[in-house]
Amino acid sequence: MLTIGELARYAGVTVRAVRHYHAKGLLAEPERDQSGYRRYGASAVIELIKVRTLAEAGVPLARVRELMHADKEQFAAAVAEIDRRLRAEIRQRQRHREEIARLAVGDQLALPLEVVGYLDRLRALGVDERIIEAERDGWILLAAQSPQHVPTWMARKRQQITDPQLINFYRILSQAFDQTPDDPKLVELADELATYLTHLTDEHGEHYVNDTNLDPPLAKLMDTLALDTVPPARRLVALLKQRGWTGWTELERTPTERLDQTEHPA
């Protein structure tokens, strides 16, 4: 016969656990001997190992009690169910491990690889990292909302950044980061950008610079994100509005500008 300490050691649990299982009714509590000590037989070791195995597998103790009194068919069905749940948890944990591993590679955590490549290209072209961060966060929103459109949008972006003039705009904006809001570089950039946008729309049509067709709330959210991340952009938006263009994520000609272009074509 075994003492409670010996029982616990053979079953691989603590004495405290044995007492807890007694209190929960999961392990029968034997009569005490003449000295007042509990004595356990081999069957108690087997029962305790079963309880420990089920508990370690994540089976709630209330369910453990039920399974300990189930017949063979019921027990086998319950074990199969537990095995399915454990397999699902393993798959979920594996996905979590993969997501955690992706944290080490930065942008790839929440972006398609083609967008990551585009951001890397901007870095290689010397665009300020703060502008790239704003672009990255915007693409995270776009990719989450409309993943099916990302390839088309990225094809257009890759085409756009082959234009040296557009890259120059990025660089001027980068230089304005640490300047005052009335920095003449921003005025210069607004003049050049307005002229550039007008040229593009005259040559390719109104939708060339605005082909995302985002829902207004999403476009507004992306504008807020960009303007908060790139402070000079807020001043640039105001300057562009004076020059006939509104918006940021979705640039549009103002109605007055459209009317002027219609009445006085270049």
Walk me through this protein's architecture:
The chain is mainly alpha-helical and 266 residues long. It folds into two domains: 4-101, Multidrug-efflux Transporter Regulator, Chain: A, Domain 2 (Orthogonal Bundle); 110-263, no CATH class. It is 67% helix and 2% strand. The protein contains 13 helices and two strands. The chain has helices at 4-11, 15-23, 42-56, 61-68, 72-102, 113-124, 129-145, 150-160, 164-175, 184-204, 216-229, 231-242, 255-263, and strands spanning 245-246, 252-253. Strands 1-2 form a two-stranded antiparallel ribbon. Helix 9 (164-175) packs antiparallel against helix 10 (184-204), helix 10 crosses helix 12 and helix 11 (216-229) crosses helix 12. The longest helix has 31 residues, at 72-102. The radius of gyration is 34 Å and the shape is rod-shaped. It starts with a helix and ends with a helix.
| Largest pleated sheet | 2 strands, antiparallel
**Could you tell me the radius of gyration in angstroms?**
34 Å
Helix/strand structural class:
mainly alpha
Q: Could you give the count of β-strands?
A: 2
- Count of the domains: 2
So how many helices? 13
> How far do the termini sit from each other?
105 Å
Strand order of the largest sheet: 1-2
Helical residue percent band: 55-70%
Q: Which percent range describes the beta-strand content?
A: under 5%
Unreliable segments of 5+ consecutive residues: 261-266
Average pLDDT value?
A: 81
SSE series: HHHHHHHHHHHHEEH
Coarse shape: rod-shaped
List the helices and strands and how they pair.
Elements: H1 4-11, H2 15-23, H3 42-56, H4 61-68, H5 72-102, H6 113-124, H7 129-145, H8 150-160, H9 164-175, H10 184-204, H11 216-229, H12 231-242, E1 245-246, E2 252-253, H13 255-263
Antiparallel strand pairs: 1-2
Helix pairs in contact: 1-3, 3-4, 6-7, 7-11, 9-10, 10-12, 11-12
